[in-house]
Amino acid sequence: MKHLLTTEGMTAEAATAVLDTASELKHTLLGREVRKLPTLRGRTVITMFYENSTRTRVSFEIAGKWMSADVVNVSSSGSSVGKGESLRDTALTLAAAGADCVIIRHPASGAAHRLAEWLEESGTSVVNAGDGMHEHPTQALLDAATLRERLGDLAGRRIAIVGDVLHSRVARSNVHLLTTLGAQVVLVAPPTLLPAHVDRWPVEVSHTLDAELPSLDAVMMLRVQAERMHGGFFPSAREYSIAYGMSERRLALLPDHAVVLHPGPMLRGMEIAAAVADSPRAAITQQVSNGVHVRMAVLYHLLAHEEEVA
């Protein structure tokens, strides 16, 4: 694996290999007082985040450091980007400085793919940490890792993705990955928050959350991305919560084994009730924890796996 840019087109074998590696790394570190592995010693990993982030940025940094890589953070406000430098020139500068891997989050869809094209000759790997409304592949992988821990094999499992699907790169990456792993995905959202081309996706579509809950193995609540909305996509926050929020009443409609996910940050009281978010049925903090191990696995497959096989 040279880059990780998307889950679209990723084979089940490749995804399973990353998930299995993440599980092995998690068990390797379990109980260790010093959570350090020498796997990426001498490697340099650079994070470039042009959008705000807590979970993704921190977990990539921790993942790199737990693998003994040198991790350098670059932000648009503290770099030459603030002086007008182009993304291409910034990327080439980082590669010339010795970056083995560049992790990028950018507001423009396709930015990670362009970065990979520009850095092809340098040999630097690129990881997409979220590009506009396109994809967020490591989030989908950590969601799958969490679902595997809670449910076992995902083949045949029925999983709902609920809310602002239109603006969600998390939803897109999960649709591609979960269906590849054999899950049945149903999108639950108002018509205004579904993409125009949703009929091309291998999913079911529903506008009524209550009707879907009794048949679900997992429900993934999405953040309402107000910063990407220009116009009225639903009447009010209260009406959205009534129709599509995960309340305690709705939690009771789920089968006993079903799990609730949320990529964060959560709008408590609108997308998900506080009592649900803090319930043992929810795996939200488990997602964050698994995010570190999944991103360790991604860095391993990008920077170390081929050398170890050789």
Automatic annotation (TrEMBL):
The organism's place on the tree of life at top rank: Bacteria
GO MF terms, alphabetically ordered: amino acid binding; aspartate carbamoyltransferase activity
Reactions this protein catalyses: carbamoyl phosphate + L-aspartate = N-carbamoyl-L-aspartate + phosphate + H(+)
Binding site for L-aspartate: 83, 169, 223
Binding site for carbamoyl phosphate: 55-56, 105, 136, 139, 264-265
Domain Aspartate/ornithine carbamoyltransferase carbamoyl-P binding stretches: 2-149
Family annotation (InterPro entries): Asp/Orn_carbamoyltranf_P-bd (IPR006132), Asp/Orn_carbamoylTrfase (IPR006130), Asp/Orn_carbamoylTrfase_sf (IPR036901), Asp_carbamoyltransf (IPR002082), Asp_carbamoyltransf_Asp/Orn-bd (IPR006131)
GO BP of this protein: 'de novo' pyrimidine nucleobase biosynthetic process; 'de novo' UMP biosynthetic process; amino acid metabolic process
A GO CC term attached to the entry: cytosol
HAMAP family: Asp_carb_tr
Name of the protein in question: Aspartate carbamoyltransferase
EC number of this enzyme: 2.1.3.2
Purpose: Catalyzes the condensation of carbamoyl phosphate and aspartate to form carbamoyl aspartate and inorganic phosphate, the committed step in the de novo pyrimidine nucleotide biosynthesis pathway.
Xref: PROSITE patterns: CARBAMOYLTRANSFERASE (PS00097)
Pathways per UniProt: Pyrimidine metabolism; UMP biosynthesis via de novo pathway; (S)-dihydroorotate from bicarbonate: step 2/3
Top EC category: transferase
Keywords linked to the UniProt accession: Pyrimidine biosynthesis, Transferase
Family, per entry: Belongs to the aspartate/ornithine carbamoyltransferase superfamily. ATCase family.
Residues annotated as transmembrane: none
Subunit structure: Heterododecamer (2C3:3R2) of six catalytic PyrB chains organized as two trimers (C3), and six regulatory PyrI chains organized as three dimers (R2).
Domain called Aspartate/ornithine carbamoyltransferase Asp/Orn-binding: residue spans: 156-302
